[in-house]
Amino acid sequence: MEEIFNIRKRQERRLTEQLLLYWNSVRGERKFPPISDIHPADLGDIWQDCFVVEIKGSSDNPEFSHTYYGSRIKDMYGGDLTDDVVERIQSKTLDLYKQVIETKQVNINEGEFTNLQDEETKYRQILLPLGPDEENIDHILGGMRYRQFDAESKDPLYSQYDKAADTPPPAVEEEPEVEEEPQEAEAEQEPEKPQEDTGF
């Protein structure tokens, strides 16, 4: 099953699709897998786009605590993270977590907020329930990809990673073809000169 995931992971572009594929591969026939079945090494580099939420208390009054933030999640928020900071910046965060508990289903959503550096951030995230049995959810595995814009100018602000991962390469204009003048039949073709190594 893990081998199938690794093959298909390379074919999927969206983070949400990659995480959903992994979650399905580890849960098997169960409603959702336990946190102990989630191994960061299996996810490779996309683990830096993930976060983990621990759930305590009753289902009627749950308490949420973020136990892990990937490095790119920290970059997205633009500063040191605490539960209070995340909840203040993203006002609907707790409601989304509660939806996962109530429905026991995967939640994929989009939104935007202004981070600690006054950068407008548009994101797409997935929330995946984790639990020890069919009825109880004690963790949520989340993943996010984002784009950021200057709050005043609305100009896009990309990190090198985001630009490489989430945006298509710019179109390259093809040079117009130039018809070569016909050479005389008797003229011999000169051998091609080897190109110098430019280091690219």
Task: Describe this entry's structure for a reader.
This protein has 200 residues and is of the alpha+beta class. The protein has a single domain (2-166), classed as Beta-Lactamase (2-Layer Sandwich), CATH 3.30.450. Helices cover 28% and strands 25% of the residues. The chain has seven helices and six strands; from the N terminus they run αααββαααββββα. The protein has helices spanning 2-9, 15-27, 40-43, 71-77, 83-89, 93-103, 160-166; strands at residues 50-57, 62-69, 107-114, 119-130, 139-150, 156-157. Strands 1, 2, 3, 4, 5 and 6 form a six-stranded antiparallel sheet that branches. β5 (139-150) and β6 (156-157) form a beta hairpin. α1 runs antiparallel to α2. The longest helix is centred in the first third of the chain and has 13 residues, at 15-27. The model is unreliable at 1-5, 7-11, 158-176 and 182-200 (pLDDT under 50).
Layout of strands and helices, then pairs:
Layout: H1 2-9, H2 15-27, H3 40-43, E1 50-57, E2 62-69, H4 71-77, H5 83-89, H6 93-103, E3 107-114, E4 119-130, E5 139-150, E6 156-157, H7 160-166
Antiparallel strand pairs: 1-2, 1-5, 3-4, 4-5, 5-6
